[in-house]
Amino acid sequence: MPRKTSFFFAAAAVAAALVAAVPATRAAGLLDPAKPEDALLLNRKMSCSLEDGQTVIHWWKGSMLSRVPGERDRVLFNVQGMNIRQCGSFSDPKRGPGFRSVSREVMLYLDPQTNEVLRRWKNPWTGEEVEVIHVANDPVNMRAPTFAYGADGKPAVFRGSFVKGKAWTSGEAPLWYDNPLAGDYQQYVGNNYHAMEMLNSFTDAKALLDPAVRTLPTVSISWARVSDWIPWMKMGGRTGIIVFTTVGKRVASIEDLSEPLRSELKASYPAYLAPPPLDDARPNETSWTYIKKVVDSRRAAQGDQR
């Protein structure tokens, strides 16, 4: 994700202030955001753990709303989701130390009044009752390791900032690529996949800068997304977009997930109780590629190849 370079200077300045405020013996051991190797470790701690193979779980909850010109926004669903991940270390003679994250994630669409897991949903615009296809992306991996130095020789930069004892990372991911549910002529007629994701993560600055803290005990997150209609809604070409807005945190184990996510995960998505293996080389899954697989499978079973 793109990040503002000013974050690096802010991080370095605050790290220096923290160093001055503690005894020299302690200060000498703090991670320094100005050093590429340490910046890499700070980014890794925010994402997962400095311990290879340590499972880290992020959980979030919130709502999905519709926005259609000429009508009020509607809360269509509540949502609950989780991402389970682990990291592994790498080393390159020219680029220095590095790491790669591998993960899986599930997000459930819930009734906005009862928080029950939805299996069917009546589309208020079309009147059609449709099957709800929940998000089940496996895997969601870093495509390649990231290192202390890029392939172009540029040093790693801590993707965050420090203010009043807190550290946070913030970024946007503008998504624009070929739609797996559209045809081969998207550059001529449109229908490309278009979305924007916004993620913020917050933690204690001292814990983040302390190399003895291998896995951060607390990380708070917020995740928002703006995109086209979800395919299973069967909205066709109707004008409008959807907005996800959620907050969450890092949790210690599957048992710390909220209901009904915890029970549904165990009953319907047992593979998601652990992250993928560190050497996982599969292509990444998205909510749209997953929906395509589900739809194609159902059509094949019914003898319908449309």
Question: How are the elements arranged and paired?
Answer:
Layout: H1 6-20, H2 24-27, H3 36-47, E1 56-67, E2 74-92, E3 96-110, E4 120-122, E5 129-131, E6 135-137, E7 146-147, E8 161-163, E9 166-177, H4 186-189, E10 193-204, H5 205-209, E11 220-227, E12 241-251, H6 261-268, H7 287-302
Antiparallel strand pairs: 1-2, 1-12, 2-3, 3-6, 3-7, 4-5, 8-9, 9-10, 10-11, 11-12
Brief descriptors of the model:
306 residues; ten-stranded antiparallel beta sheet; two-stranded antiparallel ribbon; 7 helices; globular; disordered N terminus
Structural class: alpha+beta
End-to-end Cα distance: 37 Å
Say what oligomer this is.
Answer: single chain
Count of individual domains: 1
Instruction: Please count the helical segments.
Output: 7
Low-confidence stretches: 1-26
Helix and strand sequence: HHHEEEEEEEEEHEHEEHH
Percent of residues in beta strands?
25-35%
Radius of gyration: 21 Å
The total count of strands amounts to 12
Report the helical percentage.
Answer: 10-25%
